[in-house]
Amino acid sequence: MIEKLTKEEKNIKMRSSSAMYRIMHKILLRKSKIFQDKEHLWLMVLDSALNIKSLDVISIGTVNETLGNPMEIYSIAMKKRAVYISLIHNHPSGELLPSKSDIDLTNQVIQVGKMHSIPLIDKLIIGQNGYFSFKDTGLLLELEMSLKYIPHYKFWEKITEILSNEEYLNKSKRFINV
Fold this sequence. Notes:
Blueprint (H helix, E strand, L loop, with lengths): L6 H4 L6 H14 L2 H4 L3 E7 L5 E9 L9 H10 L4 E7 L9 H17 L3 E8 L2 E4 L5 H6 L7 H12 L2 H12 L1
């Protein structure tokens, strides 16, 4: 399901989490009370200038969870020729901190994005009175460095890169000799 955006909304550059929040907060307010009481997962497809190409609802869940998977997300992103993507979902409870499943899905999407060269630039959790940005809090960067969901061949490439990095080895020797 595609969310309708005004011409003005489409022309706002998504350079910050606050810009994304303003757009998404307006959209959430347009929804009927019934839909506001359920979690939604949206995919924001962006072009190279960070303009919104489309805003798609990936899923509508229950009062405390929604589902999504990287295959669905990147299927849409590739069809729409995304350069960047952002994920947004609401927490009707007002609790803005991410759950374990929020973090796991985000981590998986980041890793799949690396393989398809379509990076996730932020993940927002929005409520009626605020938002949580994975990018602004440093959680996005932390997940980008995670090895949890990378393919095995990429894991060994990363290990080889680390072992061939002389600076890294010198730092490691200091800790080994202590």
